[in-house]
Amino acid sequence: MAALEFTRRYAMAHRLLATNSEKCRIPHGHNEFVTVRLDPAASFRFSDTNSAAPFELVKRRWHAWIDGAVDHTLHLGESDPLIGYFRNHEPARLAQIMTFQGDPTTEALAACYFLKLSAFIADEKLPFTVREIRIEETPTNTVVLARETFDPAQSGLREDAWPWRADMSINDF
């Protein structure tokens, strides 16, 4: 079975308050690459289309979400005091804040992306499953989350959290 893969680049900023890295406690940014690997439901077979499954629909929806909702966002833990600042002083900016249970690490981001893309695929009834999400945070740091090592049902994420929804959301405000 041939896997399908596509990559998107975006800019983001985050800060990590619970981890022990002083450098990461201050808001800072990254230009990240997210690579998605999908498995089609059917194996490749020569035909008039020569494609196991059309992936332009999932690719279009994923790219629209990355470009329209994720690019240039600020990633914060739900208990970060900066959220209170934005609520009180810049409420229009809340739509640009991606929230996480706990610190917005690259590992948590990969899990949220896995769930969001799976929700898009299920919503469109597309013949794919997510095999892997790969996020290159820096040229020397990459996180890979694979279906074999990630069980969404055991993720600990609230059932009503934004990653489960097949919409353009990035938070639960």
What does the model show?
This protein is α/β, with parallel strands linked by helices. The protein has one domain: 6-pyruvoyl tetrahydropterin synthase/QueD (Tetrahydropterin Synthase, Chain A, 2-Layer Sandwich), CATH 3.30.479.10. Helices cover 25% and strands 29% of the residues. The chain has three helices and six strands, in the order ββαβαβαββ. Helix 1 packs across helix 3 (106-124). The protein is elongated, with a radius of gyration of 17 Å.
Give the overall pLDDT as a whole number.
Answer: 94
- What is the H level of CATH, i.e. the homologous superfamily? 6-pyruvoyl tetrahydropterin synthase/QueD
Question: What's the Cα radius of gyration?
Answer: 17 Å
Shape: elongated
Q: N-to-C terminal Cα separation, in Å? A: 40 Å
Residue windows where pLDDT falls under 50 for at least 5 positions: none
Separate helix tally: 3
Main sheet summary: 6 strands, mixed
Overall number of structural domains: 1
Q: At the first level of CATH, what is the class?
A: Alpha Beta
The strands making up the biggest β-sheet line up spatially as 4-3-1-2-5-6
Give the tally of β-strands: 6
Brief overview, please?
This protein is of the alpha/beta class and 173 residues long. The chain has 3 helices and 6 strands, in the order ββαβαβαββ. It has a single domain, classed as Tetrahydropterin Synthase, Chain A.
For the structure shown, list the relevant keywords:
173 residues; alpha/beta; Tetrahydropterin Synthase, Chain A; elongated
Topology diagram in text:
Blueprint: E1 4-14, E2 28-40, H1 56-70, E3 73-77, H2 81-89, E4 97-100, H3 106-124, E5 128-138, E6 141-146
Parallel strand pairs: 1-3, 3-4
Antiparallel strand pairs: 1-2, 2-5, 5-6
Helix pairs in contact: 1-3
